[in-house]
């Protein structure tokens, strides 16, 4: 069943070999994570259940997968005991493998993950007082090579499957201990609210701002986010999900229409010359075209503004003139906009430096003075390379042996502390 053919995705490195929607498993079982409920029903029917049974079982299994976070068919107590091993022989409930988990001093957590065919990628969790944001990856690496971004320097690129994308959310909830508890004897029974509670809802928001350009993996990102938003499962509101794009103009309207999440746009520069240099995709889709697509973005309004991300690069894009031009452009296109100023996060070999704090402050003030919100984003998790643009799989930075040594040392420290 698993389609192992490779396809190409658009981008600067083309064609790029990427797996299709399901990553094949050596044992032949099909991983259900990432598949829509209807596809699960079809697979159950193909495996021999009659239409009515297939529909009922698909509904039950879906609920266990996404509402309860169960990873073992044996735990699905409302499914007949004899049926559970039948399912387990044919199907599987996967999670990305965790290669390494790190904790920043500011509470940010970063996981290095691996697909079942051995590709590594990262996810980051950023806790705040009033929310918990999971930063999800859409690709292993990125084809776009923005000059200030570490991910863009990775050689290997592959699209993540819907299962690998939604799998990050499931894994985060596993790690945060956030699945509802309780026995749930039957789906149709009224659940006992005293027993059936979740622990404080740590994960409240999702941003598609990890590795990769999500709009170059549109179908898989859409499939994954549909599962995240499904009311029978994780049930996260589209208002709590933000997709960040470097400006893949032809896919932006579809993103608004078909996915409906908040949009963030990596603008980063206000002149063609500078944006061509730092975001090379600008040569394909220029600033005017990009801002027009933002003005046309379905669902954008003053209540649901588009976020413009602007990385602060010393002596590159951070002058007073640039700030004024930014304001002019946003007003010209009448955009319901807020600006996020991101101090550049350094990485080894980067060609840029971060603007001085005074410069960032002044830039922010100018934009604010013209009635557009422009907060400076506090870098999070810099000590573990988890901040924006620092993601690049450790596989390329450290040897396996070095990681093992570090893991042993960390365990020893923990043991000594405890
Ligand atoms: N590929 C998508 C989403 C991932 S990047 C995009 O480019 O929008 C998330 C944000 O971090 C983007 O705005 C990106 O431009 C920014 N970024 C990349 N490298 C950075 C760095 N070194 N310092 C600060 N921000 C960076
Ligand atoms: Fe890719 Fe975004 Fe990094 Fe650009 S900033 S290289 S689009 S991940």
Observed structural traits:
TIM Barrel, DNA polymerase, domain 1, alpha/beta, two-stranded parallel ribbon, binds S-adenosyl-L-homocysteine, 12 helices, 15% strand, binds iron/sulfur cluster, 13 strands, disordered N terminus, 418 residues
CATH superfamily of the largest domain: Aldolase class I
The shape is elongated
Task: Give the N-terminus to C-terminus distance in angstroms.
Answer: 49 Å
Count every helix, treating DSSP H or I runs of 4 or more residues as helices: 12
Give a short account of the largest sheet: 9 strands, mixed
Overall helicity: 25-40%
Describe the structure.
It contains 12 helices and 13 strands. The chain has helices spanning 37-46, 51-68, 83-90, 162-176, 218-229, 249-259, 272-278, 287-295, 320-332, 357-369, 394-397, 400-417; strands at residues 30-31, 91-92, 97-103, 109-114, 120-127, 132-135, 139-140, 158-159, 205-208, 241-245, 262-266, 306-312, 337-343. By secondary structure, the chain is of the alpha/beta class. It is elongated, with a radius of gyration of 22 Å. The strands form 3 sheets. A 9-stranded mixed β-sheet has the order 3-4-5-6-9-10-11-12-13, with helices on one face. Strands 1-2 form a two-stranded parallel ribbon. Strands 7-8 form a two-stranded antiparallel sheet. The chain starts with 29 loop residues before the first strand and ends with a helix. It has 2 domains: 34-92, DNA polymerase, domain 1, CATH 1.10.150; 97-403, Aldolase class I (TIM Barrel), CATH 3.20.20.70. Strand 12 (306-312), helix 9 and strand 13 (337-343) form a beta-alpha-beta unit. Bound molecules: S-adenosyl-L-homocysteine and iron/sulfur cluster. Iron/sulfur cluster binds at residues 142, 144-146, 149, 151-152, 212-213, 246, 266.
């Amino acid at each position: 069943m698993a389609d192992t053919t490779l396809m190409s995705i658009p981008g600067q490195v083309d064609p790029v070999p990427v797996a299709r929607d399901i990553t094949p498993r050596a044992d032949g079982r099909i991983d259900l994570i990432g598949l829509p409920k209807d596809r699960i029903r079809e697979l159950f029917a193909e495996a021999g259940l009659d239409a009515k049974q297939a529909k009922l079982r698909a509904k039950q299994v879906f609920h266990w997968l996404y509402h309860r976070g169960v990873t073992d068919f044996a735990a699905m107590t409302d499914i007949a005991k004899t049926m559970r091993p039948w399912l387990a022989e044919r199907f599987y409930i996967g999670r990305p493998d965790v290669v390494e988990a790190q904790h920043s001093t500011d509470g940010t957590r970063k996981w290095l993950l691996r697909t079942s065919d051995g590709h590594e990628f990262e996810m980051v969790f950023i806790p705040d007082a009033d929310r918990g944001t999971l930063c999800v990856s859409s690709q292993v690496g990125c084809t776009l090579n923005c000059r200030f971004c570490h991910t863009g320097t990775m050689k290997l690129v592959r699209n993540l499957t819907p299962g690998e994308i939604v799998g990050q959310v499931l894994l985060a909830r596993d790690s945060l201990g956030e699945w509802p508890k309780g026995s749930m004897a039957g789906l149709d029974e009224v659940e006992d609210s005293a027993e059936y509670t979740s622990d404080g809802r740590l994960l409240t928001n999702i941003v598609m701002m990890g590795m990769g350009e999500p709009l170059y993996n549109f179908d898989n990102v859409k499939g994954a986010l549909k599962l995240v938003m499904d009311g029978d499962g994780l049930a996260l509101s589209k208002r709590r999900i933000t997709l960040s794009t470097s400006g893949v103009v032809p896919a932006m309207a579809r993103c608004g229409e078909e996915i409906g999440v908040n949009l963030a746009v990596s603008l980063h520069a206000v002149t063609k010359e500078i944006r061509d240099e730092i975001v090379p995709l600008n040569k394909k889709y220029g600033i005017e075209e990009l801002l027009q697509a933002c003005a046309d973005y379905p669902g954008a309004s003053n209540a649901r503004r588009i976020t413009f991300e602007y990385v602060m690069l010393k002596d590159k894009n951070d002058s007073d003139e640039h700030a004024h031009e930014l304001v002019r452009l946003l007003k010209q296109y009448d955009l319901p906009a807020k600006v996020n100023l991101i101090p550049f996060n350094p990485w080894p070999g980067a060609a840029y430096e971060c603007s001085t704090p005074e410069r960032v402050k002044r830039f922010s003030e100018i934009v604010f003075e013209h009635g557009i919100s422009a907060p400076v984003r506090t870098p999070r998790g810099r000590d573990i390379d988890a901040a924006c643009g620092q993601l690049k799989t450790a596989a390329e930075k450290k040897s396996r042996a070095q990681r093992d040594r570090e893991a042993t040392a960390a365990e020893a420290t923990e043991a000594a502390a405890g």
